[in-house]
Amino acid sequence: MFENNSRTEISDLGEFGLIKRLTEGNELKNASSLKGIGDDCAVVDATSDTKKVITTDLLVEGVHFDLSYTPLKHLGYKAVVANLSDVFAMNAIPEQILVSVAMSNRFSVEAMEELYDGIYLACDKYKVDLVGGDTSNTKQGLTISITAIGVAAEEDIIYRNGAKENDLICVTGDLGAAYMGLQILEREKRIFLENPNIQPDIQNYDFIIGKQLKPECANKELEALKLAGIKPTSLIDISDGLASELFHIAEQSNVGVIIYEEKLPIDQQTFDVALEMNLNPPTVAFSGGEDYELLFTISQSDFEKVKAIKDIHIIGYCTPVSEGMFSYTKSGTKISLEKQGYKAF
Ligand code: ADP
Ligand code: MG
Question: Which of 3, 41, 103, 280 has the most crowded CB, counting CB atoms within 10 A?
Fold first, then answer.
């Protein structure tokens, strides 16, 4: 989906010309970004009393995104958010990203500029500097790889392995919305392919489509936790779906879990569209991916403090590992949690 109508071939500019076009005017915001784009390496400051966290993501057209309904600007924004979400999920603050792209000649300079508009928008929103990357052409499609660097005091870093028996299990925001947004986009794409004259019917699905195309990081909730004096015992971001992430925490922390389905935060639109598509809303919340909310555990002693924080929901608690992984349905039936992420959905 190319919104810009004029078309400049990337070959007209060449690789260096394209990099220049995409990165001119890029300003560094963080004191730790000592040298950005323009040399053989970026240079970032390292202090002796903090640690760096580093993560990378690879996004391949046709596997991770579909440009028939994803505007390039949204794709750029989302690619950065997905990456920064991993940094926040260590309880660290992201400061730099590197962006590598490989694109076929199907993509114009203007298309790449749209992608970078989204990348810069996310950089501004989350106060992150673009300090480098790499650029290549490729025979087919678009591939994007983003690496993020964050900083945290060693004692603030939170791993997946710290959950203890009886800890409360919490999530931010709402779940399953991005997955239902994707279902609507896929449905409208199928209808469009069958009959290009039919206009897509997406007006009533603004919230879930927004969650799919332009997700945000749950860093505000982390700040709220810090302000309340709560340090989660384990923390992970929900990219593959709640159930899959619960298994990661449980396996690494050596605990079991009990989840109450009625406690799952599911937005009304997510709920309604799930029913419309004959899906069980809690199943969508457990298995739908790409919400970029946070899943974490806290000590029981923090219960009163966490209750007061907006957009944080207690959905269950940790049990001895021997008790396994279960959820209770609304009607009180105890069922075994399935590991599946949204890919197997
Ligand atoms: P090198 O030959 O050392 O790989 P490049 O010519 O690829 O250098 O890149 C020149 C500069 O531009 C470097 O600072 C690099 O990090 C940056 N850069 C290259 N491609 C991108 C990109 N797609 N996005 C952001 N920065 C990039
Ligand atoms: Mg290079």
Answer: 103
